[in-house]
C-alpha cells in the first residue's frame, strides 16, 4: 500500500501554543529568524557550550552549506576548515552522498529492524572486507563514542574465551575516546572523569608514544587490549614517533594483547590513507579499529567497528553470545547507505591521493607563518588534512589559541577549532574540495590573526 494524503485535523500551534513546525524550523532566512534560533538553543539546550561557541564566532545559523563553504543569513560566505569538527571531510552536503541518501529514502526501504536483513550495511561491510581484508567483520553504529564502547565490550567478552583471568584495558595519557562512562575511563584525561564518582576499575594509562612503558604494563600479564589513536586528535594532534605503532603491534603479538586503534578522527582518508595506520604499510595492522566522523559526511550519525575474524568470533561466535551486543539502531540502513556512499566516493574520487597531493601547499604556508611568528606559533604538526597548530603564551600566561581562532572566524570568516584536551592547540581540518585559493584564504586569515594577537596580547 501507499500512504494516502493525511487528513490535517488541527494545527499543532493551536493545540500547543508556540509550537514551531518543521517547515518553520527550516525557514531560517533572516537575522530575526537566526536570533530566535539562538535564543531557543540558549534556553533549552547546553547554553554554556552555545555561549562559548558564539563568543569565538563559531556559533551561527548556516542557511546553506556546500563543499568548503557555508553562508549565514546575511549572505556572508564562510570557509569551513574544521568540517563539523571532523565529519565533513568529503565536503558539506557532498552531492554524490546526498543523492544516494535521497535515493534510499525514495525507495521506502525498511530502515530500523535489528532482525531484518540489511542490504546497505551488508554491502558496506563486504566492501570493507575487500579493502581491509585483515578486518573482515563489521558492526555499524551511530558515532565514535558508541563505536569505542562497542569495541571495549567486544574485547572484554572475547577475553573470557581467549585470555581468561585478564582484567585491564591499557590506553594512553591525553587520549580521547568519547564521553560515555566507559570511554572516559578508557581516555587518558582526568578532566572528563571529574564528578562521576569512583573511576571504573580495569583501566590503565601510559604516555603516548612510549612503547617501553606499555611493555612494562603488558609484562604483568593481565592486559586484555591496548587502545590508542594513530594520531591523537583532541589531545592536540599529536603524532607518535615513527616506530611507535609498528612496535606496539609487535608487543601486542608478543604478549597476546588485542591491538585496537581508534581511527574515529584520523581515519576515513583524513591523513591521506583510508586508515591512518596504513601509513606504516603492513607493520601496524590492528586486531580491530573504530571509525566514525568522515564516514558520515556529516549527514547522519555513522560509526562502527572493523574486527578480525578471530576477535569477532571469540566474542560473538555462538548462539550463547550472539545477542550480547545488539541495539535498535545497530546496522540501521540509513547509516549503512551513507557509509557505503562515502566509501564509494572516497575510492572513485581518490580522496586519499588528492589529500596527499594537495596538502603540501598548505603545510608550506603554515611553516612560513610559524617562522614569521615564532612567539605566536610554537609548532605545526599532523598529517594530510589533520593539522594541529600549537600556540605560545604571552607574559601573563595566556594562550593565544582562542583569540586566534576567534579573529580568524569573526574577521576573516575562516572556521577552525581549539582542542578540548589541550588549551594550546587549534585544529585545522580542510576537506576534499579545498582549493589553492581556499588555502590562501586560510593562510591570510591566520597571518592577520597572529599580527592582531601580537599587537593586543603582547
From TrEMBL:
Recorded family membership: Belongs to the class-III pyridoxal-phosphate-dependent aminotransferase family.
Name under which the protein is recorded: Aspartate aminotransferase family protein
Cited Gene3D superfamilies: Aspartate Aminotransferase, domain 1 (3.90.1150.10), Type I PLP-dependent aspartate aminotransferase-like (Major domain) (3.40.640.10)
InterPro entries: Aminotrans_3, Class-III_PLP-dep_AT, PyrdxlP-dep_Trfase, PyrdxlP-dep_Trfase_major, PyrdxlP-dep_Trfase_small
Keywords: Aminotransferase, Pyridoxal phosphate, Transferase
Domain of life: Bacteria
GO MF, one annotated term: transaminase activity
Pfam families hit by this protein: Aminotran_3
Alphabetical list of CDD domains matching this protein: OAT_like (cd00610)
Source organism of the structure: Candidatus Blautia pullistercoris
Cofactor(s) the record lists: pyridoxal 5'-phosphate
